[in-house]
């Protein structure tokens, strides 16, 4: 069927939910990765209900038209980028919290609700949803689930996989499935809820989620900043904290290049050349004692430590970390990488980054969620396309992470940007098996084609 | 191929790993559910290595012979029962801990290690693996993973799904896959690790596991016992504890019939007729304060509360709960049920049990992991087969749990005993989808046929 005929069918079924303005189509080509799809989608459907999603997918199946599901478009791997001939299915307007149950520590939400809006609404109930990607003010819960997003608090409070009880999923042919359960325990059949978490739009469209909540953590936080002569010392110190059996809520590492860029952006006095920083936060009833114990470990490891005892001072220390993304954008186009390694391998991974910087003659400003071993090396370059030389350096970086027992992506996903390395980590047999599983959900392959499993 | 020919092939490839003695074949017909398979398997292969498992599966595939994987045979749903013409693949002898990394909070183990043996070995490192099924002294880690086993500590410390980073899986055709990762975070491809957890031998044979560990919890435990005039009051009190934002490590509920049976078995003075009991344990640095706060909630809810301040006295209180399974066995043949409901629905579920007891004229002694809403109603009867009338009552019970937003099985699995209700919970579309996923792993359907998805 011709593209105008597909659009006509969508308009007939969905009326004003269908947006074909140039600006809407153009915006749907890109996410926050800096990468954009080739060509332009044919329409953006702004679903307001499960029925809208089902109607869109029935038309897509009947006309064999590919569908790219989209939330707020804040992804960092190109997973929601829509290109030539595709239908964009936006669930951003489905943003209601349908139910909150403090007694059962759960909430039922639509996928388009922003992470931060959800948490503001939960606060009055004394509750929160733990996943806290740096994008939380602008990213949707559905997108967090589809990518398996992480954040700063994961080592102590878990990842998305630990915080979802059930999902409502519309299949490629428009059928609606209810996956998972509302109880704490449940092992009935295969755990399709977990399978859909992080599946990046390849299995179905998430139209509802039953979230596992936590009580707000009582007590005041304590925040430490520790400066080290070099990044390896900072990485070794963070590994020493974990090895000592201490569990901070947050433990962020910034290398010298990252600190310099942020200080310049925020017009702060320049940091000590070469020095790296750990920012650590403890929380809960034992926050004070834990902060002191962590401070002692960091000093023993060669750090110069300061402790902020109130939340405002602590937030100021963390503001430097939170300014990393805008600081990188101020330097040029950025490819934000996302490898994750066992915590003990963090110093060795920084050695590898140092080696790659020298081998390719480039700077790779790097921040890390040091508490969980997740690094974000930033490749900065001019122009809209990642140059081949940068991809070569990234390739070297990925292989180093795999050698150290790590993984290609800790929290951003594969999308389009890492699909060519996927089989290197999974092996060919598992790659094929995973792709065959997507075909059980989506036999015609219309859901987010070219993402994750495209070779 | 004839059965003797299959056995001959196994003997040629695996020699003394193959056991065809009558006693071995007979033992493999049953687990601890009280249910046994029809007929008898043709051989028990006692694998000592991954290669043994691969060799067995290659022969099974080549000869189209069904394979039932078995650990210690302590399951409660018949999932590991092997019947007519099947090969039993025992991984019980693969029981080594291959690696423990306190700095990365992980251990790599073979599947046959007993849960309690693992935890004794981890203790010297100051570590533990949280899943604690009541069977922990006799059940294997591989079996815990294959069934998605739970335990007493789940509300505070999570379920198996939260405690496994990666799995090594041998497919039906003998290929070995490495699923998951060693890092805290990892979203590379589909989460097949979670898919295999609780898959009850239908997707492949687990030959290795990378486990996520916790530090031993510091401090002394506090244990409370609270007596209530009836079971509904006890259930309402437990829901009130959760609703008050308190998080005990353990919160177990026993109804009057359970208490009576255990007191008789242990030759204790008879309990107050009709009375039900909650046994609650707090741990960690704040154990004392939490115990006092929980005690106050329980008293307000009408309970008579006593607090044990040392571990030995606390263990004595919990010993009554731990004697439940032998107490039931002393009454007759037992069908242990395993429904799970949202915590707030626990009182309503006890109302349903009361209704079913009266409707069918039977007693259903029930214990519950009240902290997470998981109930174990026990149907007791004479003889080896579950009578139709008991199945009718169980059917009524399952439907009541589903109506209350619950699930068929919280921690035991579907096995053979609940397969006829599986589609009632999943819906026909999801049932078929899940079954089709098993066929991606096992196209010929030789892995544990007749379990979980058999209609």
Automatic annotation (TrEMBL), chains A, B:
Annotated signal sequence range: none
One GO MF term attached to the UniProt entry: oxidoreductase activity
Pfam family membership, one: FAD_binding_4
Source species, domain of life: Bacteria
Stored InterPro entries: FAD-bd_oxidored_4_C, FAD-bd_PCMH, FAD-bd_PCMH-like_sf, FAD-bd_PCMH_sub2, FAD-linked_Oxase-like_C, FAD-linked_OxidoTrans_Type4, Oxid_FAD_bind_N, Vanillyl_alc_oxidase_C-sub2
FAD-binding PCMH-type domain span: 37-216
Keywords: FAD, Flavoprotein, Oxidoreductase
Cofactor(s) required for function per UniProt: FAD
Coiled-coil region: none
Transmembrane portions of the chain: none
Record-given protein name: FAD-binding protein
């Amino acid at each position: 069927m011709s593209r105008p005929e597909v659009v006509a069918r969508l308009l007939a079924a969905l009326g004003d939910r269908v947006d074909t303005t140039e600006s809407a189509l153009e915006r749907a080509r890109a996410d926050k990765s800096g990468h954009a799809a080739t060509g332009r989608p044919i329409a953006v459907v702004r679903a307001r209900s499960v029925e809208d999603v089902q109607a869109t997918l029935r038309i897509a199946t009947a006309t064999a038209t590919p569908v790219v599901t989209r939330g707020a478009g804040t992804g960092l791997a190109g997973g929601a980028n829509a290109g030539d001939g595709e239908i964009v299915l936006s669930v951003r307007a489905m943003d209601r919290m349908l139910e909150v149950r403090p007694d059962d520590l759960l909430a039922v939400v639509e996928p388009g609700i922003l992470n931060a809006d959800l948490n503001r609404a939960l606060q009055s109930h004394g509750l929160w949803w733990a996943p806290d990607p740096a994008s939380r003010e602008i990213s949707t819960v559905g997108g967090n689930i589809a990518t398996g997003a992480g954040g700063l608090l994961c080592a102590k409070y878990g990842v998305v996989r630990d915080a979802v009880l059930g999902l409502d999923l519309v299949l490629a042919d428009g059928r609606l499935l209810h996956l998972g359960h509302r109880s704490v325990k449940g092992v009935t059949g295969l755990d399709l809820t977990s399978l859909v978490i992080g599946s990046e739009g390849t299995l179905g469209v998430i139209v509802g989620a039953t979230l596992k909540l936590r009580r707000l953590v009582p007590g005041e936080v304590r925040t430490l900043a520790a400066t080290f002569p070099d990044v390896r010392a900072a990485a070794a110190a963070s590994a020493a904290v974990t090895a000592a059996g201490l569990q901070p809520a947050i433990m962020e590492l910034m290398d010298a290049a990252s600190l310099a860029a942020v200080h310049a952006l925020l017009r702060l006095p320049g940091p000590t050349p070469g020095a790296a920083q750990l920012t650590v936060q403890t929380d809960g009833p034992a926050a004070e004692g834990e902060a002191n114990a962590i401070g002692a470990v960091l000093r023993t490891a060669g750090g110069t430590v300061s402790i902020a005892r109130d939340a405002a001072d602590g937030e100021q220390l963390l503001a430097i970390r939170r300014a990393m993304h805008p600081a990188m954008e101020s330097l040029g186009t950025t490819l934000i990488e996302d490898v994750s390694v066992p915590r003990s391998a963090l110093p060795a991974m920084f050695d590898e980054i140092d080696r790659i910087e020298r081998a390719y003659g480039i700077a790779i400003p790097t921040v890390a969620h040091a508490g969980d071993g997740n690094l974000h090396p930033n490749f900065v370059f001019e122009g809209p396309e990642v140059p081949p030389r940068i991809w070569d350096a990234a390739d070297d970086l990925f292989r180093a992470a795999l050698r150290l027992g790590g993984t290609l992506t800790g929290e951003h996903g594969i999308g389009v940007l890492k699909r060519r390395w996927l089989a290197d980590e999974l092996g060919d047999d598992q790659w094929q098996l995973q792709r065959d599983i997507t075909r059980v959900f989506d036999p015609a392959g219309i859901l987010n084609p070219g993402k994750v499993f495209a070779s």
